[in-house]
Amino acid sequence: MMLDPLLAANMNVTWWLLPLVVTVSLVYNATRYELPEKILQRSLRMGVAIIAFMGGALVLLFLLS
Amino acid sequence: MPAQRIDLKNPVLAAGLAWFVPGLGHAYQGRWFKAILYSACIWSTWFCGWALGDGKVVYYNRDMKRGRWTAGYAAQVMVGSAALPAILQTSRASPGGNPEDRSQIELHGTLSGPFDGMLAAVSFKDGRKAFFHVRGQFEMQPSEDDTFRKSVTGRFTGTLQVADENDAGIPDGAKVEASINLLESLEPEIFPSPNRAVKCRVEGRVDDLKGGDFSADLRGKVLNVRTLWNRYAAPLDAEGLEAAHGDLGKYFEIALVYTWIAGLLNLLAIWDAFEGPAYGYGDEDPATGKKPENTPAPPMVLATSAAVPAVVERPPQNPVSATG
C-alpha cells in the first residue's frame, strides 16, 4: 500500500505527529488511572499541553529563523 | 494500593497476553474500557506505520558483523504477535539475513507473471541503440544445463512503451518477444514486497520491424509473485533498504517511528496489566489521597481448605450506627 505521491509531496510531516499525540496521551493516562472519566480528562489535558508546547516551540523557531 | 481494588487475576498471564495481543491481557482481567482503548490505540498506530512504510519497516536483521542491526526491532517486538514473525523470516532467508549480493542468488523453481520494467542497453544488429519501458508476461526457470551455476531459460513477451523522441525509430506499442539467456541479478525469495525484481540478459526481436533483432538487459519486476508467507516482516537487503528510502523518502522514518511508538506504548500497557494503574484508581481525595468512604472493598478470599477457597463479602467500610 504505497502512499499517493501527490499527497506525500504536499503533506507537511508535522501533521503526522498529531495521531501520535492522541495515542500517547490516551495510553499514558490509561496506565496511570482506572476510571474512564479520569483517563479521558487527563488525556485531553495532556494532549492540549503537548500541542501547545510544540506550537510554542514552532513559533520560537520561526521567530529565530 | 490501586491494585487491591482491581482484580488482576493472574498478573503474569495478563502481562503475557497483553504483550502478545495489545488489549487481550486487560480483556482477560475484565477491564474492558482499557482493553478497547489499548487495542484501538496501539493497533492503529502499528498498522498506520506498517501501511506508511509499505510493509517494509518491520524486520529483524542480526548481521552485527557488518554493522547492520535493526535496534528499533527491540521496540517493535513489544507488539508480540505482529513483530515476532520477523525473527522467523530472517532465519528462513539465510543465517544473518539476506545475501548482500543479488548476483549470487539462484532461481529455485519457476518465476512467472506480469512484468513491468525496462529493456536497457538495447543493441540492434544494425547498430541502433535504445532503451524502452516494457510491459508484458515473463517466465523463467532454471536451465537443465548446469554448466553455469546461474543458467536459466525463459521468455518475455510484451509491448514497448516508446517516448516521442526515439533514435531507433520504433513505434509506441510495438510487440516484442525475447528469450532469456542469463540471470544477472535476482531479488531474494523472502522479501517484503509482493513483486520480485529481476535483471537478466535477453535476445529477441521487435515484431514487424526490419532489423528488429536485438540483445539487451531486461530489468524490472515480476508482479504479485510473492505470497504473504514470504513477504510479511521479511528482512530487507542493502539494495532493498536503499530502494525503500528512495521510494518512501521521509515517510520511511515516520513509519519506523510509528511502529516503535506502538511497541513502547504496549510496554506501558503490559505494566498496567501486571501491576495495575500507577497513580491510583482515579477517585481518590486529592488532599488525603484516600479512597472515598463507603467504597466497596474487593472480595476477601479465605482458604477454608486446600482445594476450595471461600469468598466472603466484607461489610461496608462505615456501617450505620445502631443508635442512629
Features:
heterodimer; A: 65 residues; mainly alpha; 3 helices; B: 324 residues; alpha+beta; 2 domains; 6-stranded antiparallel beta barrel; two-stranded antiparallel ribbon; 10 helices; elongated; disordered C terminus
Largest sheet of chain A: none
Rounded to an integer in angstroms, the radius of gyration calculated over CA atoms of chain A is 16 Å
Beta strand % of chain B: 25-35%
Number of strands of chain A: 0
- Structural class call of chain B reads alpha+beta
Low-confidence segments of chain B, ≥5 residues, pLDDT <50? 299-312, 318-324
Principal-axes geometry of chain A comes out as: elongated
Number of helices of chain A: 3
Give the total of domains of chain B: 2
Share in β-strands of chain A = under 5%
* Fraction of helical residues of chain A: over 70%
**How would the global form of chain B be characterised?**
elongated
> Which sheet architecture does the biggest sheet of chain B show?
6 strands, antiparallel, barrel
Mean pLDDT of chain A: 86
Structural class by sheet pairing and helices of chain A: mainly alpha
Q: What string gives the helices and strands of chain A in order?
A: HHH
Q: How far is the first residue's CA from the last residue's CA of chain B?
A: 32 Å
